[in-house]
């Protein structure tokens, strides 16, 4: 590491100083990744405590009055994005300004209504994050392999667009161009509504008996994982993207009402079919989600029982490596009240039988396979 905190040996596509306004989770994570690539990162935040924490953790240096950044990345809450973008455009007339807000259309409309010159502004949004925020939770790798939406318009110069794309590529993300309207409709479906659904489902646990919650397995934990998010932030996000979110919620509410009606009278003609079709449509929808390397491929899974002792997981992966198995996906679930774990491993269907037989020969207990 150099004296300025940067790491030699990695070449960045972004040249010059990058100013990051907002040293929370995303801002500090961007700072960490750019610092590792040898970029001069200048951090600014209205919270002195947050700024000092991000600097102490190595996300960059504190911004100085004489800085002349080539790129400004605005990482602030949605309700102040337009204010900060406007201020940064005026303060740094030679810099390209982007932001990472999860809603793109509302701040753009606000800036246009104010008559701000948006020639050097390019809205963007990395589809990455964590359940917990703040500089202390920041990581340089949270953008790796994740989409980074870039919203250009007719006034965007090729040079400025290339700079924002270079930022995404430096962080290991995959740049994707969308209009602000396309972006907001898309995130309503794949991000904002899932947050609402997870939160509403998790809220049903509040009045539930403790005995009921003791039965919770990995399925309910997967479904409600994102329910831990900050209410203050999500009030802003949902308010800024209300119309597309309402459209999806209304459609989901209609589906729920139809399913509830079928369950009220399961002996009525067509009820069982309606229930089956609801589950089947879910199967089809899940299969449309891009998987490993963006491929929509369906893998098969098997479950291995693992003793809850040190070294067992390492031994399992070592045996899989000796068998020449490429693990496509992995999930570990702990069995409540029992000293063991259940490792669900996804592989290509063509090697399932060989893989299971090889592990059993090495003493592993197979709990189930997709072919059972």
From TrEMBL:
Q: Which controlled-vocabulary keywords does the entry list?
A: Oxidoreductase
Query: Could you name the domain of life of the organism this protein comes from?
Result: Bacteria
Q: Name one GO molecular function term.
A: prephenate dehydrogenase (NAD+) activity
Q: Which PANTHER family match?
A: PREPHENATE DEHYDROGENASE (PTHR21363), PREPHENATE DEHYDROGENASE [NADP(+)] (PTHR21363:SF0)
Instruction: Please report which protein family the annotation says this sequence is part of.
Output: Belongs to the prephenate/arogenate dehydrogenase family.
Q: Which NCBIfam families match?
A: PRK06545.2-3, PRK06545.2-4
Protein name per UniProt:
Prephenate dehydrogenase
What is an annotated GO biological process for this record, any one?
A: tyrosine biosynthetic process
**What Gene3D superfamilies does the annotation carry?**
6-phosphogluconate dehydrogenase C-terminal like domain, NAD(P)-binding Rossmann-like Domain
InterPro entries listed in its UniProt record: 6-PGluconate_DH-like_C_sf, NAD(P)-bd_dom_sf, PDH_C, PDH_N, Preph/Arog_dehydrog, Prephen_DH
């Amino acid at each position: 590491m150099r004296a300025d905190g940067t790491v030699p040996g990695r070449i960045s596509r972004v040249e010059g100083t990058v100013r990051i306004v907002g040293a929370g989770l995303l801002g500090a994570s961007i700072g960490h990744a750019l610092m590792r690539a040898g970029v001069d990162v200048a951090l600014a935040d209205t919270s002195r405590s947050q700024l000092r924490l991000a600097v102490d953790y190595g996300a960059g240096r504190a911004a100085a009055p004489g800085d002349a950044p080539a790129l400004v990345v605005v990482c602030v809450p949605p309700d102040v994005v337009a204010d900060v973008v406007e201020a940064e455009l005026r303060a740094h007339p030679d810099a390209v300004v982007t932001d990472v807000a999860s809603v793109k259309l509302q701040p753009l409309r606000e800036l246009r209504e104010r008559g701000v010159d948006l020639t050097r502004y390019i809205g963007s949004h990395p589809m990455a994050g964590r359940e917990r925020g703040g500089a202390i939770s920041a990581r340089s790798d949270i953008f790796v392999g994740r989409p980074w939406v870039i919203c250009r318009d007719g006034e965007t110069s090729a040079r400025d667009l290339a700079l924002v794309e270079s930022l995404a590529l430096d962080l290991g993300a995959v740049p994707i161009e969308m209009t602000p309207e396309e972006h907001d409709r898309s995130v309503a479906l794949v991000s904002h509504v899932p947050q609402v659904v997870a939160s509403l489902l998790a809220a049903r646990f509040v009045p539930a008996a403790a005995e009921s919650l003791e039965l919770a397995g990995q399925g309910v934990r997967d479904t409600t994982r994102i329910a831990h998010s900050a209410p203050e932030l999500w009030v802003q996000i949902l308010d800024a993207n209300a119309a597309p979110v309402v459209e999806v919620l209304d459609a989901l509410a209609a589906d729920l009402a139809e399913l509830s009606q079928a369950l009220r009278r399961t002996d009525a003609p067509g009820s069982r079919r309606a229930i089956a079709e609801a589950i089947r449509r879910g199967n089809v929808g899940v299969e449309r989600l891009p998987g490993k390397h963006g491929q929509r491929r369906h893998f098969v899974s098997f479950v291995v029982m693992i003793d809850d002792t040190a070294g067992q997981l390492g031994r399992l992966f070592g045996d899989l490596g000796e068998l020449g198995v490429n693990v496509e996906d992995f999930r570990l679930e702990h069995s409540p009240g029992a000293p063991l774990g259940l490792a669900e491993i996804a592989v290509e269907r063509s090697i399932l039988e060989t893989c299971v037989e090889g592990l059993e020969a090495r003493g592993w207990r197979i709990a189930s396979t997709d072919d059972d």
